[in-house]
Each structure stands twice: as C-alpha cells, then as structure tokens.
C-alpha cells in the first residue's frame, strides 16, 4: 500500500464463520512506488514478431499497425507455424485485419453487430441498423498451422477480432473473453457528474448490440476458446506463460500430422 501519509492503517477481515481478524499495516511513501516488473496475468510484450523454437513464430497482434505488415510478412517467409497473440487490446484496426487475412481458411464474415436508433416521427420506436463486415483471404496466404490466443481481458474490439478469427477457421486457445461491447455514449444532465458537485448526473450507455458468431449475446458471455487453457497459479509463481507453452505444443501436433 502506497499513500501520501505514513500513518498506520487498521482494518478488519471477517470470515464466513464470523471470526474477525484485525490487521494493522504501515503504508510506504508514494515516492517509493516503482514500475511493475514480471509476468502479468495477461502477458504483454513490446516486440511485434518473436522467433520461437521449431520454426514457429509469435505475432503480438496488439502491437502491429498497418505500416508494419510488409516487414512482418518478410519475417514470416520461413515460418512453419504461427501463434497469433490476441490477448491484449489491438492498437490498429487495419493491422490485425491484414494479419488475419494471411491465415484464414475462408472469407471471414462478422455480422454480429447492430446499432439502435430512435425512429421518427415516433421517438420511442427503435430502429436496428445491422453492420456486416468481411475479411477476404489474402493472395499471399500462409499454409502453415496457426492458433490464436485469447484471455479474460480480451474485450470490445479485441473480441471483435477474435470473432473474425473464428469465422475464418482459426482455432482459439486460452480463456473465455470479457463479453463487453463498446461504442460508449455519455450524456450529462445538470452539468454532469464531477467531484466538486453532487447535483449533476452522467449517463453512460451503448447503442450497439454485439453477439457471438452463433447469434448468442456477447455481453457477460464472451468468445469461448476452442481449446480451454486458463492461466494457473503455478505458472504465475514460475513466471511462465502456460498458454504460450500450450499453443506451441498444439502447433507441434499439427505439424506432425
């Protein structure tokens, strides 16, 4: 615990059986707060492309922009298998679309999104505007085994990209995603909510409906992986990415078939 004050803090923990434990801690000065170094629950790398063993490559899609794709394509020319790390939020829409086009087996169609609008003249009438999107397989396709990684922190645009991956026949390994859609809209009344006034109200909502590829609601369900591999307590202790390890083993099995 880091605070501006170094006064001791006392708090109580009550167990289901009614037993209460009192704990007193002395916080550290806020100046002592340092950057985290280690393996987070969802590992994040700075690299765009990583060379693994056995001729396998890992693409950290969340780091790849459209300006990087030509260089990435050149680096993959001798790849025997590819892991698409899609566990973190992508930074470039066209970047991940281009990457997926190299590996999908068929045209990936995503018709899971629609927008709600007020109809005129009856403002209470709801109009649905479907949004259908497609990714076509690229001419310079890779005919190598591929697998995509998902995490519980994959959300919104992240889940959108995973739905395209599934629609294109790319298997997903990891955990069910968050189940959250975006396009957030804010509306302020009486100045909106802020820390200096208790008078204002801010409404936050979305006018976008998002489903899974099979038509079920995405909210609170997420995209479920084809191969379930949760992060484990032991992998945290060992500072090992067990999902990456499982993905490498999957590629080995595909190559040997």
Task: Walk me through the structure.
The protein is built from five helices and 15 strands. Strands 5-6-7-10-11-15 form a six-stranded mixed β-sheet. It has a three-stranded antiparallel β-sheet with strand order 9-8-14. It has a two-stranded parallel sheet with strand order 1-4. Strand 2 and strand 3 (20-25) form a beta hairpin. With 257 residues, it is α/β, with parallel strands linked by helices. It has two domains: 1-34, no CATH class; 35-256, 2-enoyl-CoA Hydratase, Chain A, domain 1, CATH 3.90.226. Helix 2 (93-101) runs parallel beside helix 3 (157-167). The longest helix is centred in the C-terminal third of the chain and has 15 residues, at 242-256.
Shape: globular
As a percent range, the share of helical residues equals: 10-25%
Major beta sheet summary: 6 strands, mixed
Order of helices and strands: EEEEEEHEHEEEHEEEEEHH
Instruction: Please state roughly what percent of the residues sit in beta strands, choosing from under 5%, 5-15%, 15-25%, 25-35%, 35-45% or over 45%.
Output: 25-35%
Terminal CA distance: 52 Å
Question: Average pLDDT value?
Answer: 86
What does the radius of gyration come to? 23 Å
Number of domains: 2
* CATH fold-level topology of the largest domain: 2-enoyl-CoA Hydratase, Chain A, domain 1
CATH class group of the largest domain: Alpha Beta
The helix tally amounts to 5
**CATH-level-2 architecture of the largest domain:** Alpha-Beta Complex
Runs in which pLDDT lies below 50 for 5 or more consecutive residues are none
- Structural class per helix/strand content? alpha/beta
Order of neighbouring strands in the sheet with most strands: 5-6-7-10-11-15
Please identify which CATH superfamily of the largest domain we are dealing with: 2-enoyl-CoA Hydratase, Chain A, domain 1
Tally of strands:
15
């Amino acid at each position: 615990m880091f605070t501006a004050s170094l006064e001791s803090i006392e708090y109580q923990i009550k167990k289901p059986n009614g037993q209460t434990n009192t704990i007193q801690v002395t916080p550290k000065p806020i100046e002592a707060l340092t950057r985290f170094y280690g393996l987070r629950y969802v590992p994040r790398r700075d690299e765009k492309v990583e060379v693994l063993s056995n001729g396998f490559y890992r693409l950290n899609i969340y780091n790849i922009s459209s300006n990087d794709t030509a260089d990435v394509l050149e680096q993959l020319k001798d790849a025997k298998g590819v892991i698409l790390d899609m566990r973190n939020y992508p930074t470039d829409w066209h970047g991940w679309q281009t990457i997926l086009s190299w590996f999908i087996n068929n045209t990936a169609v995503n018709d899971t999104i629609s927008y709600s609008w007020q109809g005129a003249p009856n403002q209470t009438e709801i109009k649905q505007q479907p949004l259908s999107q497609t990714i076509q397989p690229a001419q310079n396709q890779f005919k190598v085994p591929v697998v995509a990684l998902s995490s519980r922190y994959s959300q919104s645009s992240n889940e959108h990209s995973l739905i395209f991956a599934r629609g294109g026949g790319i298997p997903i390994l990891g955990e069910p995603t968050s189940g959250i859609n975006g396009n957030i809209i804010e509306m302020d009344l009486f100045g909106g909510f802020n820390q200096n006034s208790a008078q204002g109200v801010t409404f936050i909502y979305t006018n976008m409906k998002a489903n899974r590829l099979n038509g079920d609601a995405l909210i609170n369900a997420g995209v479920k992986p084809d191969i379930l591999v949760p992060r484990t307590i032991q992998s945290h202790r060992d500072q090992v990415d067990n999902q990456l390890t499982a993905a490498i083993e999957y590629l080995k099995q595909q190559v040997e078939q």
